[in-house]
Amino acid sequence: MLKHYNITVKGKVQGVWYRKSTQNKAQELGVTGFVKNLPNGDVYIEAEGNENQLKSLLDWCAIGPEFAKVTQVLFDEAISQSFTHFEIKR
Q: Residues 6, 37, 52, 90: which is the catalytic one?
């Protein structure tokens, strides 16, 4: 069953290739949606997939790319947007 998560990642997550790495991981997992930087320094993700795919993405988000220092990952479930791919929004 398709689920939709709104995810906020806090810590040192901008300027460390977090968005591109998230896109790569999402595509590897077959997750659709988008990732973008927020003005406050957080990264925001909307992701859709099955429960296992989204759990794997959340697990990855808690670590992130090599130079990221993730302090917190928050998420909640929302209504599906029927995304067709995973993109980086600017």
A: 37
Based on the residue annotation, tell me whether 90 is a catalytic residue of this protein. Answer: no
Contact indicator for 50, 73 with CB cutoff of 8 Å: no
pLDDT of 14-54, one tens digit each? Answer: 999 999 999 999 999 999 999 999 999 999 999 999 999 99
Active-site residue (options: 19, 24, 50, 90): 19
Contact 60, 13 (CB under 8 A): no
Residues 6+ apart with CB under 8 A from 82: 48
> Can 37 be counted among the known catalytic residues?
yes
Is the pTM higher than 0.90? yes
Class of domain 3-88: alpha beta
Kindly list the domain boundaries of the chain, sorted by start residue: 3-88
